Amino acid sequence: MNKNNSNRGFKSLLEILLVSTRLGLTSFGGPTAHLGYFHEEYVRRRKWMDEKSYADLVALAQFLPGPASSQVGIGIGVMRAGVVGGIISFIGFTLPSVVVLILFALLFKGSDIGNAGWIHGLKIVAVAIVAHAILGMAKNLTPDLKRKTIALFALLTTLLWQTAFTQVGVILLAAFLGFHLYKQHQENEEVSSQFPIAKSVSAICLLLFFGLLFILPVTREVTGLYWVALFDSFYRSGSLVFGGGHVVLPLLEQEFVSTGWISEESFLAGYGAAQAVPGPLFTFATYLGASMKGWQGGLIATIAVFLPAFLLILGTLPFWDSLRNNPKIKGAIMGVNAAVVGILISAFYNPIWTSSILAPMDFALVVILFSMLVYWKLPPWIIVISGAVGGTLLTLL
């Protein structure tokens, strides 16, 4: 009996690995497209879960910071084969793009492309894509005056005092304000679902998430160790992202370009490469880590940037019902969401806008790219190619 159970468990894990790896090799188009691929594969074809359970899982992933599609993939693995299933699902979906971007970083390292026109074009692409992502977030996360005010406070504070502790302090204060301002907030109806994970495991994951968020900056300041600083920067960036992989761009640029750890040219070349590969855009962090510290840095960066999402999805699965149906907790999270919008606008202005839009022609190109993305609904990879071509043409004018 035990042997049969073991065989079934191994077969389930192998199946999860094979299916998630295939998705990791073929899922282009960003988090929204990924969720469509997942629905087709896991719900319609394999019937691993029903429509309601999938919708609940997607709602949870959208509710939390981090890469939504990766969190949904982890959750599906957990529901299929427990925590190990979640780990296997994450590895399968993420590993292909991790390998490609580490190789790209190692091949690209040392190339002299500082004055290339296509690099300037990629800077302008970043302006268009991040502006679109932030506008969407602002519409959803700051719909009323109270949350707009919280976002403004976060924007001004992080713009004028750019330290690792500032972001954490702003998030804490925003949670406190949201808790009090929205403690009477009510949903239209209560919803419920079941997720097969022990609450003790979830509690440990949540303690780790918050513990690392506060311990890492302190350890970084006390020790001055490079690897601690590297892990802290990626971990905080992964902890503060709502709305998909594009939104992590300004946080990572603020952490690594502004501090001189990596050149803006290398940063943007990697961003273009990340757009061109399947799987989660968060693996852009893999490229950054590999550019700075070889393949070891790539692996450390990958673990650090995805770890918050992993801890949060595992930590909240059993508590999802009480979280989304508790007005006070929902209020605190509403405050945090609003603050993140302000933090991202601050990072969008400096360094993305200030280093990219240097002349009227630059602004004209960003308007064209933004229109292609927002109004013509063209996929991001076309925007990247168009920006690179446009940047090259600008150098010829």
Main attributes?
397 residues; mainly alpha; 16 helices; globular; cell membrane; Chromate transporter; Chromate_transpt; Chr_Tranpt_l_chain; chromate transmembrane transporter activity
Write down the Rg: 21 Å
Uncertain stretches of 5 or more adjacent residues: none
Structural class label: mainly alpha
Integer average pLDDT? 84
Distance between the termini: 75 Å
User: In percent, how helical is the residue content?
Assistant: over 70%
Order of helices and strands: HHHHHHHHHHHHHHHH
Proportion of residues in β-strands: under 5%
Note the overall shape: globular
What is the domain total for the residues?
A: 1
The number of distinct helices, counting runs of at least 4 residues, comes to: 16
**Number of DSSP strands?**
0
The biggest sheet, with number of strands, parallel, antiparallel or mixed sense and barrel status, is: none
In words, what does this structure look like?
The chain has 397 residues and is mostly helical. The protein has one domain (105-396). It is built from 16 helices and no strands. The chain has helices spanning 2-26, 30-45, 51-63, 68-108, 117-141, 145-160, 164-181, 199-223, 226-239, 248-256, 264-276, 284-316, 320-325, 327-356, 360-374, 380-396. The model has no long low-confidence stretch (mean pLDDT 84).
